[in-house]
Every structure is written in C-alpha cells, then in structure tokens.
Design brief:
The chain contains 26 helices and five strands. The chain is mainly α and 707 residues long. The strands form two sheets. A three-stranded antiparallel beta sheet has the order 3-5-4, with no helix packed on it. Strands 1-2 form a two-stranded antiparallel sheet. Helix 9 crosses helix 12, helix 9 runs antiparallel to helix 17 and helix 14 crosses helix 16. The longest helix has 67 residues. The radius of gyration is 36 Å and the shape is globular. Keywords: Antiport, Cell membrane, Endosome, Ion transport, Membrane, Signal, Sodium, Sodium transport, Transmembrane, Transmembrane helix, Transport. It is a multi-pass membrane protein. Belongs to the monovalent cation:proton antiporter 1 (CPA1) transporter (TC 2.A.36) family. It comes from Equus caballus (Horse).
Length: 707
C-alpha cells in the first residue's frame, strides 16, 4: 500500500489499513507498564513462596533438633536411674540391707521420675485435629495426608476410645519415654533369658529335672486355667454391678491367666544366692522360673491363636481347642530345636576353626550367634524366648568347652552385665509407666479378684503337684520347701513384657494395669519378706552349693558302693533316673567328642566301619591329653556306681567339712568293669581327689542331728 492511498481512503479506513505493528506503537507505554507490574508481582510472589518454604524448612529442622534433644534426655533419664540404682545397691550391700532388692529400688526410682515427668513438665504441643475417614472400614498402618499439595506420612500408634479423644497425651517428653513394646522383646529380653540358660547349674537342675518339668509345664497350665476361670467369674460380677464398660471375653481371661502365671522370683533367688540357701530349693525355684517363662509365652500365643469356626468366635470349639494345643506343641518344639541347633552350629564353628587364637573375634561371634537365635525364631514364627533359653543351655554345655580362657571369662561377664542392666531397666520402666502410660484402666474389683485368683492358682499349682512328686522322690519336698515356693511366686519382667506387648483393646489395657500393680506388690512385699520367711520356715542357709542335702533324718547314712549287694542297699539316687543316665552316656561318648575337645576319642566309641569319620571329627586335643578334659558341671547324673559320693567332699573324707563325720570301711567281694563314661563321671563327682582304692566299699557315716 502506497502512502497516497491512505488519503483517498479517509481517516477511519486508513487507520484500519495500517500495519498491526504501527498500530501497537501508541500502546507500547501502556503495555510495558502493565508487563512490568505483572513481572514485579510474579517475582514478589515467588520470593514470598521461597521465604515461606525456607521458614518451613527452618521450622522442620528446629522440630528435628528438639526431637533429638528430647530423645537424648529420655535415654539420659534411664541411664541416671540405673546409675542411682547401682549406687544404692552398693550402699545396701555394704550395710547388709536385705528387705529391698535392687529391682524394687529401680521401681521406686522409676516411680519418682514418673511423677516428676507427669506433673512437673508442661505440655509442649497443642491438641491435634481429628480427621474423619468414614469411607474406610479399617485402620492403615501408614497414612499419607495431602496438606495444601504437600504429602505427610503418619504411622499408626493404636486405637483411642471415643471418650478419651480429648485426653490424648500432649506432652512430647512423656511420649518419648514411652517405648515401643518390641524394644522389650527384641533388645531387653534376649540377654535376660540367655543368661538364665548360660549360667544354669546343671548338677542340681538335672537332679531335680522331673520336679522342675512338672512345676513348669503342668503347674503353669493348671495355674493359667484356674486364674482364667476365676477371673471370668470376676468379669461377670463386674458386668452385673455395672463396672465393665467394654467387652471382656473368656479368651481374654485365659490370656491374662497365661501371662500372669509367668513367675520371676529374681528377688528371692538373689537373696538365696547371697545367703547360700538350700541348693535343692534354689534349683526348684530357679528351674521353674526359667522354664515357666517359656511355657507362659507359648501358652499365651496358643490362646491368641484360638479361633473357633462360626459366628461366635469366643465360644468353645473342640477343633479349635486341639488346634491350639497343636500350635503350643509345635511352637515349643520348633523353638527348642532352633535354639539347640544354633548352639550346636556355634560349637562346631568354634571347634573346627582357630578362633580361639583371637579371643575378641571369638567372643563377638559367640555374642552374635546367641542373640541371632532369638530374632531367627521370631522371624520364623516361633518363640524367641524358648529358642534363646535352650541356646544358652547348649552353649554352656558344648561351646563353652571350646572357647579360650579369655573368651570364657568375657562371655560370662558380658551376659551377666547385660542381664543386670536389662533387668533393672525394665523394672525402672515399670515404675515410670505407672504415670507415663496413657491407657491405664483401673478397676478395683478386677485388681482384688486378680490377687485372690493368683494366690489360689499358685496354691493349686504347688501343693497337689508336690504331693504327687513326693510319691516318687527319695528326697522329699518338705512342707517348708512347699510353703517357700508358694510364697516365692513373684511376677516380674516377663509378665510385664507380655502385658505391654498388646494394649489396643479395653480388656488388654485393664490387664496391663493390673499386672503392673501385681508386680509392684510382689517385688516390694514378698521380696522384702524373703529373709524373715526363711527363718520362720527353718530353711537351711550357709550351705555349700557342692554339698548334697541329707535325704532323711536318720542318725546314720549308709552309702553303697558297686559291689554285688549294692542293688539292695540304701541308695540316694534322688532324681537321677535311668533316662538321664542313658542320656549322659550317649552325650559323653558321642556328642561331646563331636562338638567339643573333650570326651573319649570317637575311634574308641564308634563302630570300626566309621573309622574315617571318627578320625575327622575327633579333636587332636583328645589324643594329646592323657585323660579327657573335666566337664563343667558334669556331675548332674548319679549312677548306681557313684552313690558313694552323694555327700561329695563333706563325707567321703574321714575328716570332712562337717567335723563330726567319721568313716569306717569294709571290703566286699566282687567288682565290675566300668565304661569310660562312668569312670569320667565318677572322677567328676570327686573320686579323683579322694583316691579310694576299692569300688566295692561300704561307707558308714554317723550324722549329726542338725546336719
């Protein structure tokens, strides 16, 4: 278009005919102004967003730092509690104070700190807002919440009843000192249970093994069902009087009976050990408590697994009952096998390697293999408590013989320290949990009924079983022993750990609160009355643990040798039954040579056609030694040929430990050749020190009336 054409078109049409870029020229200042303002607004909005994001990051960092500080304070609180407990224990031991055990002290200090944290620290966070998810029919373990385009992850902590929504804990410090129950099971319980098996005195344990098994298995089952049925009656009474605000089923009562049947007489046993109380009484109580914990946890798992068919899931169903029994047997046997196999593997590794040249590595491997037993059993669906208990017994019987001198001392001391710290930590936490736990359900009727049910269940557990056991025992369980066992049925760490593991429902919360109060009472009252009870029941103290108790009150004790007339003599085999004598012979001739450096060479015990295998499995140390290594605590079986040694060091010698004992000997005709296992057992029982030249010897000892 030419310039002249614009004049001919007129002003309006000429304007429309101009090129667009020329038409925009007058609008450039306006457009530029608006663009600059828009850019400025955008940049200011971006800067504000960046400032807001920076502030959020700074606040998040401060929250993380505060959380880290609170974590440190909570752990420091427990360390200071343990430190204070140790110092007070030293003071009590120095002053010979026995009315309060160290576990009772730990609970008292925990109570004091719990009161301070509950009423002395202010709330540090506001009330949380509740969100409704009515479309969902179940709770999720992990929840992602979209808040203004940002996703936040939340984890499930448990169910809160509608009446307690406004009383949710708002004190972050109290939340920090409330530990995950799995911490107790996976970290604190393994060293306690393993130490019980690793430090087991096999001599007195196996001599009373029949009674211990009866008390631990049959007695725990009897106690569980008696307590469960009595508590079900208490629950019915609570429902009638209107003190039951939620569901409480019969299976819940049985579960409570199972967890509260787990005895933990740590206070009584510590006083027994300090006073050197009667060794058989100590063995009965200790053995029952060790196996009783294992039985209680498997029994509680079986009750939880009870699932009847049909609509009523809490009615009795024979099929479901026998299924639960099968689960009990399967879990217990599987856990036992897993613990024993782990101990055998550790024994083989320590035998066929040169780890003993490096004690630090040897101790570390021993520690990890022992602890992994618990976790392996739990991961496979078994019970870690049973597995780690029998792993400890197996490690003490086999692996301990393969360790170097340094590793033997280190492993004993390591697990002893871990046991002491873990146990006192749990009791400190018990005192703390009375004020920091937020789901307590206090019911006076249920608590009083629980105390009565426990007393009756313990009585039905001890007295009838003792009566039937005495029918087959040479050395009877006296009434004073029975009363002391009845009195010593304390509840402790295992009952607490089982109760706190599940506190989701109303019934479980009431059980936890009641269990906590029962533990307090038994540790403080019963534990404090142990020493006066020993005196009142006339139970011997100051007893040498290697000395056997007198089996009767006769003035003279006749102990037969292995002459031809020994079968009709007065024997004091106690509970060394033929089954355990066979086991000892098999263990000494085959298992010990395979798994350790002790015992006779396999070339002399295995058949000739196994010669190559025997030479491969037999340790060179066996050939180097003139005689097999002495086995720790191997004198737990008394064979018929070893009955002359029932009194050990105190009676074989003419001037023994009890100065009034004298001996006269008369030779009897006849001898029989002993196997190598019997000779080693005889030497382990003390024959190597007395140099008795004749086996067919009748030893007659006049005993004091007060012996």
């Amino acid at each position: 278009m030419e310039p002249g054409d614009a004049a001919r078109l007129g002003p309006g049409r000429a304007a429309r005919a101009l090129p667009p870029r020329l038409l925009l020229l007058p609008l450039l200042p306006l457009l530029l102004g608006r663009g600059l303002r828009t850019a400025a607004a955008a940049s200011s909005s971006g800067a504000a967003a960046e400032d807001s994001s920076a502030m959020e990051e700074l606040a998040t960092e401060k929250e993380a730092e505060e959380s880290h500080r609170q974590d440190s304070v909570s752990l420091l609180t427990f360390i200071l509690l343990l430190t204070l407990t140790i110092l007070t224990i030293w003071l009590f031991k120095h002053r010979r104070v026995r009315f309060l055990h160290e576990t009772g002290l730990a609970m008292i200090y925990g109570l004091i700190v719990g009161v301070i944290l509950r009423y002395g620290t202010p709330a540090t966070s506001g009330h949380d807002k509740s969100l409704s998810c009515t479309q969902e029919d179940r709770a999720f373990s992990t929840l992602l919440v979209n808040v203004s385009g940002k996703f936040f992850e939340y984890t499930l902590k448990g169910e809160i009843s509608p009446g307690k929504i406004n009383s949710v804990e708002q004190n972050d410090m109290l939340r920090k000192v409330t530990f995950d129950p799995e911490v107790f099971f996976n970290i604190l319980l393994p060293p306690i249970i393993f130490h019980a098996g690793y430090s087991l005195k096999k001599r007195h344990f196996f001599r009373n093994l029949g009674s211990i098994l009866a008390y631990a298995f049959l007695g725990t089952a009897v106690s569980c069902f008696i307590i469960g049925n009595l508590m079900y009656g208490v629950v019915k009474l609570m429902k009638i009087v209107g003190q039951l605000s939620d569901k409480f089923y019969y299976t819940d009562c049985l579960f409570f009976g199972a967890i509260i049947s787990a005895t933990d007489p740590v206070t009584v046993l510590a006083i027994f050990n300090e006073l050197h109380a009667d060794v058989d009484l100590y063995a009965l109580l200790f053995g029952e408590s060790v196996l009783n914990d294992a039985v209680a946890i498997v029994l509680s798992s079986s009750i939880v697994a009870y699932q009847p068919a049909g609509l009523n899931t809490h009615a009795f169903d024979a099929a479901a009952f026998f299924k639960s029994v099968g689960i009990f047997l399967g879990i217990f046997s599987g856990s036992f096998t897993m613990g024993a196999v782990t101990g055998v593997v550790t024994a083989l590794v320590t035998k066929f390697t040169k780890l003993h040249c490096f004690p630090l590595l040897e101790t570390a491997l021993f520690f990890l293999m022992s602890w992994s037993t618990f976790l392996l059993a739990e991961a496979c669906g078994f019970t870690g408590v049973v597995a780690v208990l029998f792993c400890g017994i197996t490690q003490a019987h086999y692996t301990y013989n393969n360790l170097s001198v340094e590793s033997r001392s280190r492993t004993k001391q390591l697990f002893e320290v871990l046991h002491f710290l873990a146990e006192n930590f749990i009791f400190s936490y018990m005192g703390l949990a009375l004020f920091t736990f937020q789901k307590h359900v206090f019911s006076p009727v249920f608590i009083i009924g629980a105390f009565v049910a426990i007393f009756l269940g313990r009585a039905a557990h001890i007295y009838p079983l003792s009566f039937f056991l005495n029918l087959g025992r040479r050395h009877k369980i006296g009434w004073n022993f029975q009363h002391m066992m009845m009195f010593s049925g304390l509840r402790g760490a295992m009952a607490f750990a089982l109760a706190i593991r599940d506190t989701a429902s109303y019934a479980r919360q009431m059980m936890f609160t009641t269990t906590l109060l029962i533990v307090f009472f038994t540790v403080w009252i019963i534990g404090g009355g142990t020493t006066p009870m020993l005196s009142w029941l006339n139970i011997r103290v100051g007893v040498d643990p290697d000395q056997d108790p007198p089996p009767n009150n006769d003035s003279f004790q006749v102990l037969q040798g292995d002459g031809p007339d020994s079968a009709t003599g007065n024997r004091t085999k106690q509970e060394s039954a033929w089954l355990f004598r066979l086991w000892y012979s098999f263990d000494h001739n085959y298992l010990k040579p395979i798994l350790t450096h002790s015992g006779p060479p396999l070339t002399t015990t295995l058949p000739a056609w196994c010669g190559l295998l025997a030479r491969c499995l037999t340790s060179p140390q066996v050939y180097d030694n003139q005689e097999p290594l002495r086995e720790e605590d191997s004198d737990f079986i008394l064979t018929e040929g070893d009955l002359t040694l029932t009194y050990g060091d105190s009676t074989v010698t003419a001037n023994g430990s009890s100065g009034s004992h004298t001996a006269s000997t008369s030779l009897e005709g006849g001898r029989r050749t002993k196997s190598s296992s019997e000779e080693v057992l005889e030497r382990d029982l003390g024959m190597g020190d007395q140099k008795v030249s004749s086996r067919g010897t009748r030893l007659v000892f006049p005993l004091d009336d007060n012996a």
